[in-house]
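On clarity, I found the account of how folds are encoded harder to follow than it need be. Since the whole study asks how a given chain folds, the encoding of that fold should be made plain. For the editor and my fellow referees, an illustration may be useful. An entry of this sort, consisting of the sequence and the corresponding backbone structure tokens, reads as follows:

:::
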Amino acid sequence: MSYTIGLDFGTDSLRALIVDVDSGEEVGMSVAEYEKWKSQKYCNPLNNQFRQHPKDYINAMKKAINQALNSAEDHVRLNVIGIGVDTTGSTPCPVNAAGIPLSMLPEFEENPNAMFHLWKDHTATEEAEEINNANEKSKNDYLQYVGGIYSSEWYWAKILHTCRIDRKVRLASFTWVEHCDWIPFLITGGEDVRQLKRSICAAGHKALWHKDYNGVPVDFLSGLDPVLLNFKYNLLENVFSSEVSAGSLSPFWADQFGLPADVVVAVGAYDAHMGAVGGEIEPGYLSKVIGTSTCDIMVTPKLDKNILVRGICGQVYGSVLPGMLGLEAGQSAFGDVYAWFKKVIKWPLEMIEDQMLRKEIEEAIIPQLTNQSAAISPTINDMVSLDWMNGRRSPDANQFLKGVVSGLNLGIDAPRIFKSLVEATCFGAKSISDRFTDEGIDVKGVIALGGIARKSSYVMQMLSDVLNKPIKVGTSDQTCALGAAMFAATAAGKFTSVKEAMSRMGRGFDKTYFPNVERVDVYNILYQKYCELGQTVEEITK
């Protein structure tokens, strides 16, 4: 028997999943939180600054892998053949020539600019706007493969911002690497960052890599600001898809995990892209990884005509499945919207000294809101909200936009506000689905993955009603890690293709939601109000 390990580096924690490559059985799993991140020491939410220390990733990885292996039968550890890695993104970090994050060096250890810039860090909104303005003035459209709009969440905006505000970090950095690229480099014993294998997923969707440019558009990027003139653009010329081996575990890391040194480590990728594979994506289905935010993925065979979908997060051949075009979109807040409302409501609980009582009440807030909201039948006169509490990712990214709760009166209570917020997140999902359809990519159904998809039938049923499409929910609780394990099995030579790994290791679906026909028309009208409200907010924001 053979096993692979999928590592899923999420926003708050790491999940390590051990999978039997012959049956897809999940034989071990562990979750490890990021200890430094828990204190939010390197974050400033009011300024949209979210940074993570690489030591969090290292310590969580040691803990999660060993706990997962200890939870499995004894023979599993000796029969692991591969490790796959997915992470959030774009989450880049400045490194030296040896590929060591600057924050691992004594002089930068407490400097947030020398750490990994988490995907939802929006400190570079002005730089993203500059990139968009420069592209508008250019003879060539360098943003055509990323939906036409560059985001502050992405690679170049974050690099440009940091290089401007922190001269020491700029001068000390040899290059910048994505989280999903750094972990495989680290555990294979990389010592020269020029040998690091960069992911086509990260490079194509966030760093403007495309074969038409033989890498990235150097003249365009270097012309943005003199601080980017000497960036080592040649390091982004060669990129790889995740069925490719990044190398084998180094002796040091093999010892740390108690694994054989010949364990193959696959090239990394972003979480939602590997999650789509773990969720058995196929052409015609929109894969939605639904958690704090969403990431929406579609795949399509090579198109007869050149379709460029406006306002999404890129389209890259091989970023999801080798040989297919991978298309990415997403919402910058989904579950985070509900968490925000819970935080607002629970504010008075801070005055309760009895911590057990306080925790009991806090844990009941979302379930009670859900039960009360589910009992309210929607009408065309209901209040309408916008889900842009963390800006808008797609379609048409704009981090300057803000969320809105409209239609309040003295008869509105907390469950009705919560219902409106859930509807807003579903309307945001519909705007993505509609954009794919409008641009010629047929969406016949949805595959829902992630915590909310598994746990909230209320949200899933509403999403089906709003989209007017069936939604299949993946059986696995850990589809991102499962997808990483599938890529690991392919990289290790167990399968000849990722599709073969999907067919052997896939867990299928355990529930399907169908639209409630009585609510489809009501939600169509409310959706139009959502769109009109959005247009108004955009006009005010200009």
